[in-house]
């Protein structure tokens, strides 16, 4: 039977449990921020991408650059 402790003395199960807990808390914070800063997305009204961010020809929709909503903008990570 193999041990779950690596050469640095870290137990893999404990590490993964702690990581999952920290990730869950982080995602709750991100979701809370997104909810409190919600605004309509420009993509949702776009006739070229229909809210997907991808045009019919497969190219990226310009709203991905200009839309300030949390769905399209990575700026929410900086503001946290």
List its salient traits.
single chain; 80 residues; mainly alpha; 3 helices; elongated; disordered C terminus
Give structural notes:
The chain is mainly α. It has helices spanning 12-36, 63-66, 75-79. It has one domain (12-79). It is elongated. The model is unreliable at 76-80 (pLDDT under 50).
Unreliable runs: 76-80
Number of strands: 0
**Helical proportion, percent range:** 40-55%
Seen as an oligomer or otherwise, the chain set is single chain
- H/E topology pattern: HHH
Distance between the termini: 44 Å
Write down the domain tally. Answer: 1
Indicate the structural class: mainly alpha
User: Helix segment count?
Assistant: 3
What proportion of the residues form beta strands (DSSP E)?
Answer: under 5%
Short characterization:
With 80 residues, the protein is mainly α.
Could you give the topology of this structure?
Layout: H1 12-36, H2 63-66, H3 75-79
């Amino acid at each position: 039977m193999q041990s779950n402790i690596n050469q640095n003395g870290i137990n893999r199960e404990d590490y993964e449990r702690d990581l999952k807990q920290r990730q869950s808390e982080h995602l709750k914070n991100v979701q809370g921020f997104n909810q409190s800063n919600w605004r309509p997305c420009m993509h949702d009204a776009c006739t070229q991408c229909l809210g997907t961010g991808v045009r019919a020809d497969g190219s990226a929709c310009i709203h991905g650059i200009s839309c300030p909503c949390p769905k399209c903008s990575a700026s929410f990570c900086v503001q946290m």
